[in-house]
Write a structure and sequence with these properties.
Elements lengths: L2 H7 L12 E2 L1 E7 L2 E7 L3 E8 L6 E6 L9 H9 L4 E4 L2 E9 L13 E7 L5 E2 L4 E2 L4 E2 L6 E6 L5 E7 L1 H4 L4 H19 L1
InterPro entries: PP2C (IPR015655), PPM-type-like_dom_sf (IPR036457), PPM-type_phosphatase-like_dom (IPR001932)
Protein name: PPM-type phosphatase domain-containing protein
Pfam families: PP2C
Length: 192
């Protein structure tokens, strides 16, 4: 992964720490009746479908990604096996940032006092260079995406929504799919 190249050369923060910037991401590619999905973090992909097999066609929302959260057993195991920790802060599980105390000056040694700061509420992201563990040459907050391939049914599948937790914490997936479907019909009637 290209992020390993940046650890040594990326600019430090004003405090001298590794970069704390990062982002979650979801990507969808549609090709040859297939939906290719890749994602890191809590940006989710939802596919909207119209079930036509029953007398009363219904719309459904299919969540095709699973958020990478530190409290997930799979992610917690990966974090801990890579030398990281997960702690709860205000009821939210977070990946711990192990950093020298602000008063420390000079090189970090085994005797250097370290603070464990519950920091990030996602287990995978792009960036977050602070999470690099040089002892294992790995990022505790992994940039490696989950990937999947799904068959595309052009009759049933009506929409795909890629969104961050900013949407999904406020709007249920089915509600979002129904809004897209309603908007699609409005736009088609305006154009026609």
């Amino acid at each position: 992964m290209i992020f390993y190249v940046f650890v040594a050369t990326w600019p430090k923060t004003v405090s001298g720490f590794a970069c704390t910037a990062g982002t979650t991401a979801s990507v969808v590619v549609i090709k040859n009746d297939k939906i290719y999905v890749a994602h890191v973090g809590d940006s989710s992909v939802v596919v909207g479908s119209k079930e036509t097999s029953c007398a009363d066609p219904k719309f459904r929302a299919h969540l095709v990604t699973i958020d990478h959260k530190p409290e997930s057993p799979k992610e917690r195991k990966r974090i801990e096996s890579n030398g990281g920790k997960v702690l709860a802060k205000s009821g939210v599980h977070r990946v711990v940032w192990r950093r020298p105390r602000p008063s420390h000056k000079g090189p970090v040694r085994r005797s250097t006092p370290i603070d464990d700061i519950p920091f990030l509420a996602v287990a995978r992201a792009l960036g977050d260079l602070w999470s690099y563990n040089p002892d294992q040459d790995v990022f505790v907050v992994s940039p490696d995406p989950d990937t999947a391939v799904y068959d595309l049914d052009l009759v049933r599948h009506r929409s795909i929504i890629l969104a961050s937790d900013g949407l999904w914490n406020m709007v249920r997936p089915l509600e979002a799919i129904l809004k897209v479907e309603a908007t699609t019909h409005i736009n088609v009637s305006v154009i026609s």
